[in-house]
Amino acid sequence: MPSGISTPPRTTAASIMIAENIPIPVISKTLRHSTIATTINLYGHLLKDSADEAVKALASALDRADANREDASPATNFRNRP
Question: Is the pTM of the predicted complex or chain greater than 0.85?
Answer without folding.
Answer: no
